[in-house]
Amino acid sequence: MIKNRSFQAMKTAVAAGLALAAVFVLLACLLPWLAVDSLYRETSGLIEGAKLDALSGDFGSAYEKSALVLEKVKRREHRLMLFYDHGDIAELTGGIDTALDLAKEGDAGLLLAALGDAENMFEYLIGINEISIFNLL
Questions:
Q1: How far is the CA of 66 from the CAs of 11, 48, 53, 101, in angstroms?
Q2: In contact, 102 and 41? CB cutoff 8 Å
């Protein structure tokens, strides 16, 4: 009878440990994704607006929108560095900073490329946290 209770307690402890580990793994995958996805949703309209402004030749407005994107990214930079490679975050901020310089110069082609690079970096950061068989291997 005592052995049966010990076995039941051990099964309960193992089940609780497995449930806790599963919750931890889900949070470890979900928190980084939420951090970068919410930032991308906040800034994607500004990036698209800056692209349209660059195409129309309104570099002042493109600069302002790019500056807002950089401000939002810089505000969350330390939080993103908790989850992502620092080089990736530096590449994201550096690309947006380059877009600011190109908006000052009035180079539409390179400005569009820099803004596209920032969008691609956002998509890369979102993609590396998706749970798939390729990410697990």
A1: 56, 10, 11, 10
A2: no
Residue 118 is part of a domain; what is its CATH number? 1.20.120.660
52 part of a folded domain: yes
pTM comes to: 0.77
Tell me the residue type at 56: S
Tens of pLDDT, residues 41-92: 999 999 999 999 999 999 999 999 999 999 999 999 998 898 889 999 999 9
In a domain, 14, yes or no: no
26 inside domain: no
Domain limits at 51? Answer: 31-136
Give a yes or no: residue 107 inside a domain. Answer: yes
Q: What is the pLDDT of residues 24-39, one digit of tens each?
A: 776 666 778 788 889 9
Q: Provide the domain count of the chain.
A: 1
- Which residues have a Cβ under 8 Å from the Cβ of 127 and sit 6 or more positions away? none
